[in-house]
Amino acid sequence: MTDPIRFGIVGSPSETPKPGGTERAIQYMREELGFDHLEIAWVQSVRVSDETCARIKAASETHDITLSVHAPYFINLNSQTADLMAKSDARLLAAARKGYLAGARDIVFHPGSYHEQPEGQVFARVKEKLLELTGILREEGVDVTLRPETMGKPAMFGSADELIQLSKEVPGVLPCFDIAHLHARTEGAYNTYEEYAGIFKAVEAVLGRPALERMHFHLSGIEYGPRGEKKHLPLHEADINYRAFLQALVDFGGARRGGRRSARRVPRARCAPVPAGVPGDAGGAQGGVMAHTWTLNNPSDEGARKLIRARLRAFNRAVMPDAFNGRLEPPDWGAFEIVVRDEAGAVIAGVTAKTYWGCMHVGYLWVDESLRGQGIGAQLMDRAEAEARARGCRWAWLTTYDFQAPGFYRKRGYRVVGQQDDYPPGHTYYTMRKDL
Ligand SMILES: [Zn+2]
What is the whole-number distance in angstroms between the Cα of residue 40 and the centre of ligand 1? Predict the structure, then answer.
């Protein structure tokens, strides 16, 4: 069974809450950004203790964020002096060893320069070097895949073909395809669906199905010239056809999406968040093992509220990843509005709704007082329900107070499925539902 496609970024997000660090970044990426992978950017050097690695590993398991490492930039498998070569080796080995301790299984690195030597000669040297380094790691029990990255300049070793061939000849090596680098290296190729599909086909043909199911990409925009890469750019500022790439990714890498695997790790029991109202929750101190501190926050503490909400959401995601992944949360929660304006452009009526799980939730329906009784509300509901049906929704629901419009909704086929009396005092609050 294959892992679902995972998305992440290289390096901790700059907005990671203080005091920052990889552990915080992992939590923040999962709970606030909805990512499920992080490439740890040890790009200057690898300076991290074994204890920190253990904490990163625990955080990644708790939050179901898989990890890779981007090794230091100063690696060159074709170094030209013994001293430089030894330093380069040490950097790659350190990234692999510490990355393994941190729970990463893929170590991405820039393989090196041709130094204007013949391509075949450089390939042979890089291959020899990788056989040596993977041998050392294997002996130490460091079970990682070394992933040389496709490079953005034609003067650098690392075309797609070179890395695929290298992976065939060296066990424990697989490519990291940096799409922007390939695009820049070739002065504008790797920009169509067919070219992207070709990468997947080549991997399957040369390296087989297991490699196809474990592909690793970098995707960004890029500025380039005759000598290749100049600088990376945000996707929307660049000419890279990322939609075509994502389509190829879905077609070739995500064909087995139905097999979203069961091995998706659930947070370990020690840290497992407990949903409100579950019997036997973690607050019970009867065991007398630990002295718990109970606090009533009055006034309320926004940080505590956010934390509790985030923990419950993490629980939801761990138990039902398909239903509670990032796509189903704000702002991509299937929200839409229908807005009515007068001739001057002023908004005079509108309805807000969102669709998810095959239903529509109607948020707010409002018509300017001067225009009530003209059927505008009914038309808004007609249009919202039509949109919901077009999105494949089977039913709709909403809430309304007795002093609002339960009669209006009843006439439209909504029936009361929930009722809170004396809420607010003297009034009733209804939950209503209709099959579409
Ligand atoms: Zn890189």
Answer: 11
Within 8 A by CB and 6+ apart from 13, the residues are 25, 28, 29, 33
Domain shared by 385 and 238, yes or no? no
CA of 177 to the centre of ligand 1 (A): 10
Look at residues 415, 338, 341 and name the one whose alpha carbon lies nearest to residue 383: 338
End position of a domain, from candidates 233, 259, 285: 259
Q: Ligand 1: distance of its center to the CA of 77 in Å? A: 15
Q: What distance in angstroms lies between residue 73's CA and the mean position of ligand 1's atoms?
A: 8
pLDDT by residue for the chain (436 residues), tens digit each? 456 789 999 999 888 988 889 999 999 998 888 899 999 999 999 999 999 999 999 999 999 999 999 999 999 999 999 999 999 999 999 999 999 999 999 999 999 999 999 999 999 999 999 999 999 999 999 999 999 999 999 999 999 999 999 999 999 999 999 999 999 999 999 999 999 999 999 999 999 999 999 999 999 999 999 999 999 998 888 999 999 999 999 888 754 433 333 333 222 222 223 333 333 333 333 344 557 788 888 889 888 888 888 888 878 877 777 777 655 555 556 889 999 999 999 999 999 999 988 899 999 999 999 888 899 999 999 999 999 999 899 999 999 999 998 999 999 999 999 999 999 999 999 999 999 9
The tokens describing 269, both together, are: 């029991």
**381 and 239 within one domain:** no
Indicate whether 314 belongs to any domain: no
CA of 137 to the centre of ligand 1 (A): 21
Q: What is the DSSP letter of 156?
A: B
Task: For residue 195, tell me if it sits in a domain.
Answer: yes
Tell me which residue range forms the domain holding 406: 335-435
Distance 110 CA to ligand 1 centre (A): 6
**Which of 424, 404, 376 is CA-nearest to residue 432?**
404
- 148 alpha carbon – ligand 1 mean position (Å): 9
Centre of ligand 1 to C-alpha 156, Å, is 12
Domain count, the chain: 2
Distance 321 CA to ligand 1 centre (A): 30
From start to end of 165-211, where are the E strands? 177-178
pTM over 0.85: no
